[in-house]
Design brief:
- By secondary structure, this protein is mostly beta strands.
- It is built from twelve helices and 53 strands.
- The strands form twelve sheets. The protein has a 22-stranded antiparallel barrel.
- The protein is globular and about 110 Å long.
Length: about 1000
């Protein structure tokens, strides 16, 4: 009996054990939800997989998932880009709730490089990156404006407050003298993009390639750096609909302190008293003029042209798809009304990105982008003269004792009938400058996985742009007095690129090798046509009736250039700690002369991930430590098509045939069959680090760039029949330091993160061919002979130097004049320093008096978050740069018939009365340090406060995420500069030689914004 009972017990235990095993082996359905730890919002597209298995899925639009699991004790792995991967053991559970922390370590972050991607930890070159979340903390119409102060080595100057106005981007200094220093823009792999055509909301990330290791793959176009823009793409899962909107109110950041009507009248009275004391004949006319002044009038002409501006932005995006097909469609509309009446800018854009897997070997895709822009501009950055100058200068100089309109309803004119000053209101009402643009970019590509380690990619891009510009100037303005002028221009641009690359990627034990090889070919064609006319029989048609003009004119032209390239790159890694990159590109361009069509641009880089060594791994405070060094060459085409050829200028009516003038032609430029590329060789050494559990991370870089074969229009003797010849005749170097530091100061419920970046660059000219120095004229040729030389390019000095006399106060008495004579000098006139010590002031006393290039630039951001609130505070600054304030040349004339700054109230009227402002009716002098000002500044660039509504509340409305925010831009600026804005350059379009010029620039603005981000 006991034996039988024992047998039954064994059978029962065996049965229970079997049932338990079967139960554990049974498949169960696990449900769950994944949210972001910081904001609590659901995360869509999170990969959920069984660790060690093949089962997996992704979260839907609500962050929810459902997964069949065969083992109740399985471990689930949750991964999502930008977040730290997390493992969760089920322990028999069928329901889990997971929160993921943002990954601030960035070692596994994907960085976009030329013709590929790399993990941050494998990058051997100098690459700075910024993601969409950081970009969109500052509302701006152009994405390039959002880069300002965000990256070391990337200097972005918003030279103008004009709506749609492009900033100047300079990466690691100026390489070229005659050509462009603009970086190459690559959007989704397509070369030759434009920030103006990209909706900032479409951007997923921006990666800036700065050293030769990163840019040599772009060969003859990489010397000025490369900006890689990656737009957003669809992800598998539930379709997500996002809408972003903001509205901004804008105003002029600062007005100039000018004389009011009473002060202006009193200064003129003082001048009258001076004339009478000297028995000067001019007293009679001036007394008559002042007798007609209505002293009750006090017109603020700045208020007449300035207004409150606004900017509004709407963005809608739809993204989603399946595992095989993913899509993203977006549409946006932005409109900005400028702070100067009559100026505005608007852009409508659409983008469609599609990825489809035909099979497990073939993937195809399409990128389509369409942008239409429209802009109304006012006259700016013009020196004046017979065309009346620009509206900003005229508003500053126009007589405040005059009303806007005369008694007969016409525009008021200056009391001096010979004045060339134009009524600012008339300039806004009677001049039209419209710019319309359409750009379409279509890119199709295909990837074929030949094997698991060999991939072939082919892409074709077609880029088309169509611009239409319309100009009209009424005969009511001095520029076209009693005549009228109208013009219409059209420009068409076609660009196609074919790219084929083969990529090898394989692991051999501790060795990892990636090799890329490719061939590209492209062609650009342009066509332009314009028609204009003067002497319009009717102004009602403006530019729509050019055939009615008394003197019509027609111009047209076309151009074509091609480029063929072979490129390659090898990335080798041993034990993930020793890294080698070799790259190069051979370019052949039609732009260059027959003797120099092809050039090769190689580079090499080494990196050592010291943190992977055992002796570093044993130090718990060090999480990442990588040393980098690279050297290589990249180029700059820097010239337009046909400049190496002898050209003929046509269109001049040079010959008479009987009584008829016929169109003639003359030699335009001399050929240079040896014209070649500008080449920049760059050495870069850097260190990347991360310590204290990634709480502190950053990078330090030193670089040395040397650019040879500088392209410059070299002056030639006039007997040759030419004025200059384009040649390779110079060398310039740039060297500097870059620092970037990221800290996670506080974590948990309240977070505080800081980013600091700093850049210092020194530039020096080593050679200018057979020349020692070259002078520049940045005055616009309308400020007199004393301003024909405002800058100098000199061997041993930096690009961007100002040149002139050293201002030394005001002559106080006759003895000073006799001791240091200057033509026309007398007590009360401008005094200059005797630099060469010869006892007199001559042109030989002119010297370098300033530098428009900053010694260093910087930016620092603090991001705070508590529960659903977030706060971002961003400061940006520049130090050590000077500004040539040419506005003061006309605005510091005491007692003159045009208005002045209030500083002229302190004019010289006797010995010891003033040493800064000359006497009444005295000129302000020639180009001198008087007009050079410190352009350093620190600016509160942006402050933004946001609130994300709780997910529990939004769920009732079917909304995934909703955030509202308010922000302010340029609210505070700390500077000594007396002009409208220290961030200015009226000559930014004239090349690298002109830095820090201010002459009638569109003023800077401050803004207040309210916005909304919502995702369904």
């Amino acid at each position: 009996m006991k034996r039988l009972l024992s047998s039954k017990v064994r059978w029962i235990l065996l049965y229970l054990l079997t049932q338990l095993t079967v139960a554990n082996a049974q498949s169960i359905v696990v449900k769950g939800k994944v949210t972001a730890a910081k904001e609590g919002i659901p995360l869509t597209g999170v990969t959920v997989a069984v660790k060690g298995g093949k089962t997996g899925t992704q979260t839907d639009g609500q962050g929810q998932f459902q997964l069949n699991v065969t083992d109740r004790n399985a471990v689930l792995l949750f991964t999502y880009i930008g977040f730290i991967a997390k493992e969760e053991a089920l322990n028999g559970r069928a329901s889990v709730i997971i929160t993921l922390e943002e990954d601030n370590r960035k070692l596994d972050e994907v960085v976009v490089v030329g013709y590929g991607q790399q993990k941050r930890k494998d990058v051997t070159g100098a690459v700075s990156s910024i993601n969409s979340a950081d970009l969109l903390k500052t509302p701006a119409p152009r994405a390039d404006q959002l880069l300002q102060g965000k990256m070391p080595g990337v200097q972005v100057m918003n030279n103008t407050g004009r709506p749609g106005g492009p900033p100047r981007i300079n990466i690691r200094g100026s390489n070229s003298v005659n050509g462009s220093n603009d970086p190459l823009i690559v959007i989704d792999g397509v070369i030759g993009g434009d920030f103006n055509d990209v909706n900032p909301g479409d951007i997923a990330s921006v990666d800036v390639l700065k050293d030769a290791s990163a840019t040599a793959i772009y060969g003859s176009r990489g010397a000025n750096g490369v900006i890689m823009i990656t737009t957003k793409r669809g992800k598998a899962g539930k379709t997500r609909v996002s809408y972003n909107n903001y509205f901004t109110v804008q105003q002029v950041a600062k007005k100039l302190d000018l004389l009011n009507g009473a002060e202006f009248y009193q200064m003129r009275q003082n001048l009258l008293a001076f004339y009478k004391s000297k028995n000067m004949p001019a007293a009679v006319a001036l007394e008559k003029e002042l007798s007609q002044v209505d002293r009750s009038i006090n017109t603020d002409w700045q208020d007449e042209v300035f207004r409150q501006g606004f900017q509004m932005n709407h963005e809608l995006s739809i993204a989603g798809g399946s595992e095989k097909t993913r899509f993203m469609f977006s549409a946006g509309y932005m409109k900005q009304k400028g702070v100067i009446d009559g100026s505005d800018f608007q852009r409508a854009s659409a983008r469609f990105n599609l990825d489809h897997e035909l099979s497990n070997k073939i993937r195809i895709g399409i990128n389509l982008a369409l942008a239409k822009t429209g802009e109304n501009r006012v006259a700016e950055n013009q020196a004046g003269g017979s065309e009346g100058g620009d509206v900003i200068q005229n508003a500053n100089k126009f007589d405040p004792t005059l009303p806007v309109y005369a008694a007969d309803g016409d525009y008021i004119r200056p009391r001096n009938s010979g004045s060339q000053l134009e009524n600012p209101r008339a300039m806004l009402n009677e001049r039209t400058r419209k710019y319309f643009g359409t750009r379409l970019t279509a890119n199709v590509f295909g990837d074929y996985a030949v094997t698991s380690w060999l991939n072939f990619r082919s892409s074709f891009t077609y880029d088309y742009a169509d611009d239409l510009n319309k100009f009209f100037t009424s005969g009511k303005l001095l520029a076209e007095k009693n005549s009228g002028y109208a013009e219409a221009q059209t420009n068409k641009y076609n660009h196609w690129i074919i790219e084929n690359t083969l990529t090898f990627n394989k692991q051999f034990g501790d060795h990892r090798l990636t090799a890329l090889g490719g061939f590209t070919a492209e062609e650009e064609t342009v066509y332009d046509f314009s028609a204009s006319g003067r002497g319009l029989s009717t102004e009602a048609l403006e530019y729509n009736g050019l055939n009615l003009a008394a003197t019509p004119a027609i111009n047209s032209g076309s151009g074509r250039n091609t480029l063929a390239s072979f490129l390659g790159r090898i990335n080798y890694s041993f034990k993930d700690r020793y890294l080698l990159t070799l790259s190069g590109r051979s370019d052949g361009a039609s732009k260059f002369a027959k003797n120099n069509k092809w050039a090769f641009f190689p580079s090499a880089a080494l990196a050592w991930r010291m943190s992977e060594e055992d002796f570093i791994r044993s130090i718990p405070t060090i999480n990442n430590l990588k040393l980098r060094v690279s050297y290589g060459q990249s180029g700059s085409q820097a010239i337009s098509r046909y400049q190496s050829l002898a050209r003929i200028t046509t269109g001049a009516r040079m010959y008479s045939y009987g009584n008829t003038e016929v169109v003639g032609a003359q030699n335009g430029s001399v050929a240079n069959p040896n014209l070649t590329w500008e080449t920049t060789a760059q050495l870069n050494a850097g260190i990347d680090f991360s310590i204290l559990s990634d709480r502190i991370s950053g990078a330090i870089d030193y670089y040395h760039k040397k650019t040879t074969n500088l392209l410059y229009s070299k002056p030639v003797p006039t007997y040759t029949g030419y004025t200059s010849v384009l040649s390779n005749s110079g060398t310039v170097i740039n060297k500097g330091w870059e620092f970037e530091l990221n800290t996670r100061n506080l974590t948990g419920a309240f977070t505080w993160n800081t980013n600091i970046n700093f850049s210092a660059n020194k530039n020096r000219v080593l050679a200018l061919g057979d020349l020692k120095e070259i002078y520049q004229n940045g005055s616009g040729n309308a400020l007199g002979d004393g301003f024909k030389r405002t800058g100098v390019l000199r061997i041993g000095h930096s690009i961007g130097e100002f040149y002139g006399y050293v201002f030394d106060g005001i002559y106080q008495h006759d003895k000073e004049v006799q001791a240091l004579p200057f033509p026309g000098a007398k007590p009360g006139s401008i005094k200059y320093k005797d630099v060469n010590g010869d006892g007199q002031i001559t042109p030989d006393d002119r010297t370098v008096i300033g530098l428009g290039v900053p010694k260093f630039t910087y930016g620092f951001t603090n991001d705070f978050a508590y529960r659903n609130f977030d706060l971002s505070v961003f400061f940006q600054g520049s130090y050590g740069n000077d500004i040539l304030n040419m506005n003061r040349i006309k605005l510091e004339r005491a007692g003159y018939e045009e208005n002045s700054l209030r500083t002229v109230l302190n004019y010289w009227h006797g010995e010891g009365t003033s040493n800064t402002i000359q006497a009444l009716d005295e000129p302000t002098g020639e180009m001198s340090s008087r007009f050079i000002e410190d352009g350093s500044y620190l600016r509160l660039k942006n402050i933004m406060l946001g609130y994300s509504l709780p997910a529990s509340l939004l769920k009732r409305w079917g909304i995934q995420h909703l955030r509202i925010y308010v922000s302010g831009q340029n609210l505070l600026t700390f500077t000594k500069y007396t002009g409208y804005d220290p961030e200015v350059n009226s000559r930014s379009g004239d090349g690298a030689l002109f830095w820090g010029y201010d002459l009638g620039s569109y003023p800077g603005i401050k803004s207040y914004t309210a916005g909304l981000n919502v995702t369904f």
